[in-house]
């Protein structure tokens, strides 16, 4: 018998979703995970996705799973009618920046339309507590560093993916203004990397990775020839772009802390929190740390800057520390070690059994 | 036999929609109008809305009408499959600022979700030319006056209605970036007022009017006791708020000109145009003009400022003049005369036969 309440996790089979489900289960929450399986591996549509099977292996707890798309109002409603859901953690979204420029409407329909449908069904079922998976991308080009939560949002969000995060934040704020029963926490992630220390779950990008760490990892394992570093003439210590990387387990625990905060009777309306370490690492810092963690050389070449990239971006994470009693604990070496551990044990991601787990 | 192409007009039975349909019919376009009838009067769901019957009376031309909600993908698709539609003029939206604060999700689902569905169905049917009914509200609190089209948008849009206009503009811009076949004109209206000179069609607000002109008109006709003027301590000539009112027929012709512009082979991607007169009139200016036009006294009282209101807002309409060969022709007196004519002939709006038409 679980002691804590029941949490619906949308996009529960994804990278951040699955790691968060681990922390929820470890803390005695009952978890209902839904996912439309577009970005995760399952043997077939009727089976629990492999990531969630591994979550169950890590925790020894069961996850209730439904293959449901958040745009499907009837299916969503059925899930709410079948369980006594207390709160929702909402991850489900398309998330590739480059792809969002090519098929913006798909991104808007999925991320905004789908979120709207979710909020509508939640409201209809009297569930009005939500933790939203947002992103530091809502800040656009930083006007100052480190970025605090009161940095302007929505200005200079140059790609549809980023705009969908910003727009959903605005919808949630307006929802809280309209109805005092809604309680919402917006979590603005910096750059999630790494994997669960067990090596059982991690980031499993399909095709060419969009992000630095999985790319480096695939170079180290020999799956890709070399890393392209986009620009070494930025005004940073070594000229390459500086970002705030955060270990996925720290990030997942941040969701747990946000949930606890939101469930306090004194919490009302909405609040945004940055989830980052507050430390900036350059591309070359990450390459070096990864080489140390893996014992492999990571070949790279410097190429031109990539349009839309900024020199530096890192968080002021002091509000989360003060109000959520949360700080990121794991350093860049640990992020690289866990990425490498996941990569070695799962060279094909979730499609083959974990090797040596 | 019509000489010009077939235009789908969403929200075609509404205030701006119906006046625009008149101008399209007068210029030999075939018009397919769709409307979900939430904001217009029809005897029953299967009948053509009264506004469109009167449009037919004004023009002597037929309008093809479907009772279709833009959120209904299948029904929309059927309309596109049944006609050879060349372009779309998209008005369908909820539009009451105050209501949008109370039921934001309904506004987001209708205005953004519905627009997304429309664009999706358009794309699927190879129709990629659109004139969008936007609003000067996308400029938020003016940073300078008169407002030009390159004034920043999306900053300080304080209500959900305004945000939906801004968000849909952004979606359309991203759509044009993603696919060069899309051609889009965003028309940013200032304050549409007045009615068709025939007195057959006009603004027919349900309940208490949200806007100044229909309110004044209902005071003049004795339906309401007096006008409340929100603040007379603004830094304007007489202390009351100054706005750029534009006659609905001028606005409608603006849509025709935008359509012609968009249909030119040289037009690519998207472009925004202000539709306003460029002249600012204060609340008391409008009261005086209305008294002159109607011969009736308009009682008013000064009350406190209303939250979110700004002192002044008026357009730089020179780009529309230069590129669309369009300027507003009708002055404030004409706007008041036509409003009064409509009000007198239709004291109950569209629900009773037009008196003396």
UniProtKB/TrEMBL annotation, chains A, B:
One of its GO terms (biological process) is galactose catabolic process via UDP-galactose, Leloir pathway. It catalyses: UDP-alpha-D-glucose = UDP-alpha-D-galactose; UDP-N-acetyl-alpha-D-glucosamine = UDP-N-acetyl-alpha-D-galactosamine. Keywords: Carbohydrate metabolism, Galactose metabolism, Isomerase, NAD. GO terms for molecular function: UDP-glucose 4-epimerase activity; UDP-N-acetylglucosamine 4-epimerase activity. PANTHER family: UDP-GLUCOSE 4-EPIMERASE. Belongs to the NAD(P)-dependent epimerase/dehydratase family. This is UDP-glucose 4-epimerase. It comes from Sitophilus oryzae.
């Amino acid at each position: 018998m679980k002691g804590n309440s029941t949490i619906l996790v949308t996009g529960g089979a994804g990278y951040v979703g699955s790691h968060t489900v681990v922390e929820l289960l470890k803390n005695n929450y009952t978890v209902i995970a839904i996912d439309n399986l577009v970005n995760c591996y399952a043997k077939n549509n009727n089976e629990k996705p492999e990531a969630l099977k591994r979550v169950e292996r890590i925790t020894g707890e069961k996850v209730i799973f439904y293959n449901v798309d958040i745009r499907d109002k009837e299916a969503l409603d059925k899930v709410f009618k079948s369980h006594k859901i207390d709160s929702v953690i909402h991850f489900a979204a398309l998330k590739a920046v480059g792809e969002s420029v090519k098929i913006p409407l798909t991104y808007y329909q999925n991320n905004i339309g789908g979120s709207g449908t979710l909020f509508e069904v939640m409201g209809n079922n009297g569930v009005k507590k939500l933790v939203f998976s947002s992103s530091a991308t809502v800040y656009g080009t930083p006007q100052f560093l480190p970025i605090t939560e009161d940095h302007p949002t929505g200005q200079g969000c140059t790609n549809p993916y980023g705009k969908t995060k910003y727009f959903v934040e605005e919808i949630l704020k307006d929802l809280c203004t309209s109805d005092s029963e809604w309680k919402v926490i917006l979590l603005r992630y910096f750059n999630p990397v790494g994997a669960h220390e067990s090596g059982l779950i991690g980031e499993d990008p399909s095709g060419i990775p969009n992000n630095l760490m999985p790319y480096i990892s695939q170079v180290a394992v020999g799956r890709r020839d070399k890393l392209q570093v986009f620009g070494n003439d930025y005004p940073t210590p070594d000229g390459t772009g500086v970002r705030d990387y955060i270990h996925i387990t720290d990030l997942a625990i941040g969701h747990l802390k946000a949930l606890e905060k939101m469930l306090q009777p004194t919490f009302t309306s909405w609040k945004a929190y940055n989830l980052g370490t507050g430390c900036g690492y350059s591309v070359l810092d990450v390459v070096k740390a990864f080489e140390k963690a893996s014992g492999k050389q990571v070949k790279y070449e410097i190429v031109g800057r990539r349009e839309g990239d900024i020199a530096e971006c890192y968080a002021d994470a002091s509000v989360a520390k003060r109000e959520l009693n949360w700080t990121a604990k794991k350093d860049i070496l640990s992020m690289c070690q866990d990425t490498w551990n996941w990569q070695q044990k799962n060279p094909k991601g979730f499609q083959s059994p974990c090797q040596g787990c």
